Amino acid sequence: MIGVDTNVILRHVLRDDAVQTPLATAFLGTLTRARPGFITHVVLAEVDWVLKRGYRVSREARLAVIRGLVETRELEFEDGESVVRALALADDGADFADALIAASGELFGVTDTVTFDRRASKKLGWRLVETAG
């Protein structure tokens, strides 16, 4: 298994660098089910963040990119079940990174999450720190 960093995924997806894009695409083409690429939660969160902030890619398109990665047989994920759950939460309006935090927490038995993020509080049922106790 070979770890794949955010920038390799982004160069392949964005096709925005004349040198790195073909290298990223060629590398990803060498992955197989027997020798897959490994994607961490951090890489997925970074991909989402860079596409959103750096390239102003729509929410739907960002989720489609992540979903496309998940559906790639030659890639394995830190915890695929949490990623699939996070996509479902994001489909319901949660921010993907927040959804990934929630899904990972569920896997480990987290029963309550606190935040300063009002939107995450509403979308994911997290408690605001001002009401935590």
From TrEMBL:
The keyword Magnesium applies. Pfam families: PIN. GO terms for molecular function: hydrolase activity; metal ion binding; nuclease activity. SUPFAM superfamilies: PIN domain-like. InterPro entries: PIN-like_dom_sf, PIN_dom. Transmembrane segments: none annotated. Keywords: Hydrolase, Magnesium, Metal-binding, Nuclease. Residues 4-122 form the PIN domain. PANTHER family: NUCLEIC ACID-BINDING PROTEIN, CONTAINING PIN DOMAIN-RELATED, PTHR39664. This is PIN domain-containing protein. It comes from Protaetiibacter intestinalis. The lineage of its organism: Bacteria, Bacillati, Actinomycetota, Actinomycetes, Micrococcales.
